Amino acid sequence: MPDDQSIHYIEFRNVYKKFDRPVLKDVSFYIDPGQTLAIIGRSGVGKSVTLAHIMGFLKPDEGEVIVSHSDISHMPETELRQIRKKVTMVFQSGALFDSLTVGENILFSLELREDYNERNKEDVVNGLLKLVDLEPFKDASPSDLSTGYKRAVAMARALAAQPECILYDEPTTMVDPIMSDDLGNLMLRLKKQLSLTSIVVTHDLDLMWKVADSVVFLYKGEAIYFGPVSELAKSDHPHVRQFLAMDEVEIDGKIEET
To answer: Is 219 helix (H, G, I), strand (E, B) or coil?
Structure first.
């Protein structure tokens, strides 16, 4: 296999990134097709910067970023657009259009699809709303929905593009424990039914235990743990131990980033 390709769907190979200070330092990890990787750690450790590299919004100073089996580290924007058809992101804000209904927000992602006619598009919208259990809210305004429901709509809109991989940015932040559990169940269902590859950036360890196959723990820009989520609790790294211990004593099992 050529050096610029990988058997893994997404792979970081010794990635460095510096702004006014080093943000990512020799970070390496990978995720295979159909698997879910969690990226965890305190605020400011490079989690969002990692997602930006996967989307091609940032380029590494050193190292290689593999996405959809190909090295995108120095890929031109025209080629990155093709990658972004395969990999999409569900933003923490949901990024919905308040001027459109829930159904219209999902339909918006289909407007440039030439392989669907108007009837097909309506069927896809209805099917996606059913998939995320939001059929009754098709004609509702996003402003009338809770934060959790907005994120479920954002997931449906992302799925309209038929991606191979979804990146979730803090999907359970600012939602109650019941909705957090529902979103985790939805992510599991999408993974199972659609064989989606996914990466979830989160500080919600309940979500991590529920959905992840593997985990990257970032600390001061370094990946101090990468491996199966089932092995994380066995890590003897002091910062991993401290992070997990804090989770055990927090109310509702949540860690709020500082």
So the answer is: strand
Q: From CA 107, how far away is CA 128, in angstroms rounded?
A: 10
Token pair 């910067």 is at which residue?
Answer: 49
pLDDT tens figures, 2-16? 556 679 999 999 999
Phi and psi dihedrals of 171, rounded to 5? Answer: -65, -20
- Terminal alpha carbon distance of the chain: 43
Residue type, 221: G
Domain 10-95+166-253 class in CATH:
alpha beta
| Rounded-to-integer distance, Cα 178 and Cα 128, Å | 22
Distance CA 212, CA 74 (A): 29
Question: Position 68: which residue type?
Answer: S
**Taking a C-beta distance cutoff of 8 angstroms, is the pair 90, 166 a contact?**
yes
**Lowest-pLDDT range, 15-29, 64-78, 82-96, 213-227?**
82-96
Tokens of 131: 């998939």
Residue carrying structure tokens 């992510």: 187
d(Cα 23, Cα 49) in Å, to the nearest integer?
A: 8
pLDDT digits (tens, 9 = 90+) for 95-120: 788 899 999 998 887 765 656 566 67
**Residue type at 94?**
G
Domain edges within the chain: 10-95+166-253
Using the 8-state DSSP alphabet, how is residue 213 labeled?
Answer: S
